[in-house]
Amino acid sequence: MNKSSNFSPEAVGFFSLATAGALLTVLVWGGTPIITKFGAMSVDVLSLALLRTVAALPLAVLILAVLRCPLPWYGRDKWLIFALGVTGLIGFPVLFTLGVGLTSAGHAAVVAAATPVFAGLLEALVNRRFPPGRWWLGVSVAFVGVVILIAEAIGLDSVDASWQGDLLCASGGLSAAMSFVVGARLTPRYGSIGVTMWSVVVGAVIQLPFVILRMDAAAWAAIEPLGWTAIIYLSAGSTVVAYITWIFALTRGGIGRMSVWQFGLPVVGVAGAAVFLAEPLTPMLIAATVIILFGVALVQRR
Which parts of the chain fold into alpha helices (H)? Predict the structure, then answer.
């Protein structure tokens, strides 16, 4: 039975479980860059991106077994769960990680901020319903705020940037947006936990051989306690918990409305850098945060 009628976006207000799920996801994902920075001290970045999903495999299997989540294997569902694992748990982290290595941090962050736009347009394409004017206005305002925030925090200089890196980052964002649309289609039938855990299994099984090839005994022995902390955070937090709450939020609140909360990721990242890395929090950063939240509020307003 399809439960999507119970979770129509029009029936969900601003103060809702969908919004709570989106905010929790943004908080967890927003801390990912800082955690990755710590983890990269003892693990190369690409291996860390692969381990983000592979290390979550045991937990995913345990949750599936305990909750007896059915395998999405009826009709086209088996192709959808495969597509979700590939786009959300392989395509995004790998493409974006490779892109960051070829472009500047500022360019990568701005390109990543386009993910909510990709998600909204893909949803509109699938549903054959163009986003309303308020959505465009809110997204535009929030995007401007993100650009200001990133320009002030890490700069937008193009010294280390390249179109190849920017294109890879954009491809990663598009891959993530595709996973949002696919996940929202499966969740009404299988639940956010089941859909997320099975997609983790798909993504982890595909990436496991690459981890085995990249990580020899010396590489595993070189991982410091902070590196293991990063792996646990990225796998259990970013991949399992945050992805469950995100798919739940998108399904219950609508992709177009909930995806704009991703504009808050740079805000969390900058705030975290100020707290944990002692980076300055300037008036311009605070103003940019207000602009971003105003743009998000425009989209959320009913």
Answer: 17-30, 32-39, 45-54, 57-67, 77-86, 92-100, 105-112, 115-127, 133-153, 163-190, 192-214, 217-221, 225-232, 242-253, 255-258, 265-276, 283-300
Query: Are 227 and 110 contacting, i.e. CB atoms less than 8 angstroms apart?
Result: no
Instruction: Provide the 3-class DSSP secondary structure of residue 205.
Output: helix
Question: Do residues 168 and 95 make contact, with C-beta atoms less than 8 angstroms apart?
Answer: yes
Where do we find the tokens 């992805």?
243
Residues in the chain: 302
The Cα–Cα gap between 108 and 106 comes to: 5
Phi, psi at 55, each rounded to 5°: -70, -20
* 136 token code pair: 């465009």
How far is the C-alpha of 227 from the C-alpha of 300, rounded, in Å?
Answer: 38
**Alpha carbons 105 and 50: distance in angstroms, whole number:** 20
Residues of the chain where predicted confidence (pLDDT) is lower than 70: 1-15, 105-106, 153-154, 156-160, 273, 276-281, 301-302
Q: What angle do CA 185, 187, 191 make, to 5 degrees?
A: 170
Q: Are 182 and 87 in contact (CB under 8 A)?
A: yes
- Closest of 260, 31, 249, 291 to residue 151, by C-alpha: 291
Q: Which two tokens stand for residue 170?
A: 């954009």
For residue 176, give both structure tokens: 């993530």
3-state SS, residue 64: helix
Query: What angle is formed at CA 93 by the lines to CA 190 and CA 103, rounded to 5 degrees?
Result: 150
Closest CA to 262 of 111, 97, 114: 114
